[in-house]
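hey m, so remember when u said the tokens were messed up on ur end? i reran from scratch. heres the input so u can diff it against urs
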Amino acid sequence: MPFPEVAVRTTLAIFVALVAAVPNLAAAQSDSPTLDIYFIDTEGGQATLYVSPSGETMLVDTGNPGERDHTRLMEVLREAGVDRIDHLFLTHYHVDHYGGLEALAAAVPILNYYDHGRSSESDRPAVAAFEQRYAELTSRATRTSVRPGDRVPLAGVDVLVVASHRELLREPIAGAPGVGDPNPACESFQPIDQSAFPDIDNDHSAGFVMTYGEFRTINLGDLMWNYEYALMCPNLLGRVDVYLTSHHGQGISGSAALVHGLRPRVAIMNNGTRKGGALSTFEILHASPDLEDLWQLHWSYHAMVDHNAPGVFIANLDDPAVIAGVISPAAEGGGQGRGGTPAAHSPAHWIKVSAQADGTFTVTNSRNGFSKTYRPAN
């Protein structure tokens, strides 16, 4: 028996409404506010851009001096639609972290500066010269020397300072997931002899935990191994979703006590080909209890084939012939991984994290467009 005309019209109307609703649903999902984080390739330095759900910006460090890193930083600012820096957070006074600041300040307005106070290396001519120029730059803006417990007022997210100028957070972060949980790695923690490392301003690094709803991430600059213990034994910081490897993944930071206590689901390594990416760092990361994936700015010459992440997770890869030379020094052109520095990657690629307030976040490799979405942990 044929359907009555009214039934046909009703069915068609429902079908059309459903079809029309699909793109609207997709638009609603894509329009949900996100915290966007860009990990910029500065060949083993740091420049990390945070764009809050409200559109305010925080840049942590500025990479090395010179056109290479400045060009890369400006490209990411354009990609993110950023024409000013609301908050410039300087972790410490080493050139791979502050080197690009003057060029950046000449290119875009910077409204607020944050640092750990005076450098512990002011007796070094290069650092003293930078501090003088830094004082001139910050005289035209607002400068704050932060201490543990301070907050950076980045609209829409919580930025809690947990380390600065050799001072560390002393009280657990209230309500943070995993605070106070047992950290078995504390039992085997061994301090390292830092007398062989003259770059003492690393220990003064200003670092923070950032929270957006259920999503949490951490950036500790170059804070070194011995200072991590007091933050994680007992665990004052809790768990994070995304861990930026401390000190570019060098083996004198990023202890198991830190990493296994944070229990990150994703680690981002801001290494260069030879700087950072230590074998011991990879081993600690791979053993971390909840780690799902490691993303890297570069394929590490130290880690070789056995420990580097799969290629889709690496933003910048060398030419296959160069990698072949690293793996097999006896091959033609071999030993390139142990000899001089190869040409800088061009174009250089970044890694982006987009996080939602419910704890969902997506990581994207700009080199190949590969993305992976991580749903909230149970």
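this time it looks ok to me. The mean pLDDT is 89. if urs says something different then somethings off w ur setup not the seq
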